[in-house]
Amino acid sequence: QVQLVESGGGLVQAGGSLRLSCTDSGRSFDDYSIGWFRQAPGEVREFVAAVSRDGYTRFYSDFVKGRFTVSRDNGKNTVYLQINSLKPEDTAVYYCAGRLTDLIGDYSSAPDEYYQWGQGTQVTVSR
């Protein structure tokens, strides 16, 4: 199974950009679709974006379209989340999660369909 580690979070000013990474140290990374979720203090965890096993199918939550881009490099066992035009309301812990699937183009926005989660990386956006 995958063991996912997020990195790339930090403190940025509104309007800035960050690139988050989700890296797996295992050998079966391309058997998993990967999702990004975020959780702000006192809020429920919400779906951000997902990418299929081969990286060709990408799906976004409505509130991030046009600002967030998800991509993956299976050669590096890494999925990226590029975040542009950051807003204070983007402040949250960002998690990546793996979903084992036989379907290359499959993805999901449901957190309970993911069984391998990283520890999260904090993104804080100041005004």
What's this model, at a glance?
This protein has no helices and eleven strands. With 127 residues, it is mostly beta strands.
Give the key terms:
7-stranded mixed β-sheet; 127 residues; globular; mainly beta; 4-stranded antiparallel β-sheet
Q: Judging from the principal axes of the Cα atoms, what is the shape?
A: globular
What is the end-to-end distance?
40 Å
> Assembly state here?
single chain
Query: Approximately what portion of the residues adopt beta-strand conformation?
Result: over 45%
Q: How many H/I helical runs?
A: 0
Whole-number mean pLDDT: 95
Q: Low-confidence stretches at least 5 residues in length (pLDDT < 50)?
A: none
Could you give the order of the helices and strands?
A: EEEEEEEEEEE
Report the C-alpha radius of gyration, rounded. Answer: 13 Å
Q: Fraction of residues in helices?
A: under 10%
Strand tally = 11
Tell me about this structure.
- The structure is a single chain.
- This protein has strands at residues 4-7, 10-13, 18-24, 32-39, 46-51, 58-60, 68-73, 78-83, 92-100, 116-117, 121-126.
- A hairpin with a 6-residue loop joins strand 5 and strand 6 (58-60).
- By secondary structure, it is mostly beta strands.
- The strands form two sheets. Strands 2, 4, 5, 6, 9, 10 and 11 form a seven-stranded mixed sheet that branches. Strands 1-3-8-7 form a four-stranded antiparallel sheet, with no helix packed on it.
- The chain contains no helices and eleven strands.
- The mean pLDDT is 95.
- The radius of gyration is 13 Å and the shape is globular.
